[in-house]
Amino acid sequence: ALKIVGLTGGIGSGKSTVARLFADLGVPVVDTDDVAHALTGPGGAAMPALVAAFGDAVRRADGALDRAAMRDRVFADPAARARLEGILHPLILAESRRRLAELSGPYAVLVVPLLFETPAFLAEVATTLLVDADEDKQIERVVARSGLAPDAVRAIMAAQLPREERRRRADAVIVNNDDLAGLALQVAAKHRYYLAKLANPSE
Ligand code: ATP
């Protein structure tokens, strides 16, 4: 069966970039953020349950989830957040499994931003790969990409698992503090390692 590498990292650490570098090497990639977007888009499979739980206010006219309204709804309401995750996580897991089942190759990469925080996803993967970057790099990149204020990025980082905890839990780490050429070399090295380790686990 296809072995799955769970790719994770804090906000702006470089998960999507690393996933793209694996894809460039021919490794199939499933990104749970993409899956979540599909499930909460117009006619998405999560929409009926979300509207039943939170009301019409969280559905836009086009049928997609109103992300801003949903964020406001769960902000400072842990019970509502738990309900949201209780609806979304099993659907994301099922759809990710469905997509992974269609893939072939020695292994695939599953991108899960909160991998260590969500045991159901952790149970899905053979091994974990962390993209780790210095916090000032994370902030700089997210600010450049999104225009968020540095303090807003810090607030998101504060809600995620601490960097040291992620590093303790990860089976392997890619450090993304420097240029993209260096990142590509690290991904190539991990690719060789996974080909050897995951394709022939008995050797
Ligand atoms: P998020 O958690 O917000 O989804 P992410 O972990 O997927 O982010 P990316 O989107 O890959 O992170 O990277 C964040 C931003 O930083 C992107 O604009 C990306 O192009 C840029 N970036 C990532 N790595 C590097 C690098 N080594 N050098 C320069 N820019 C980089």
Topology:
Layout: E1 3-9, H1 15-24, E2 29-31, H2 32-39, H3 47-54, H4 67-74, H5 78-101, E3 107-111, H6 119-122, E4 127-132, H7 135-146, H8 150-159, H9 163-169, E5 172-175, H10 180-199
Parallel strand pairs: 1-3, 1-4, 2-3, 4-5
If you had to describe this structure to a student in words, what would you say it looks like?
This is Dephospho-CoA kinase. The chain is 55% helix and 12% strand. It has 203 residues and is of the alpha/beta class. It has a domain of 123 residues: 3-Layer(aba) Sandwich (Rossmann fold). Strands 2-3-1-4-5 form a five-stranded parallel beta sheet, with helices on both faces. Helix 2 packs across helix 5. Adenosine-5'-triphosphate binds next to helix 1, helix 7 and helix 10.
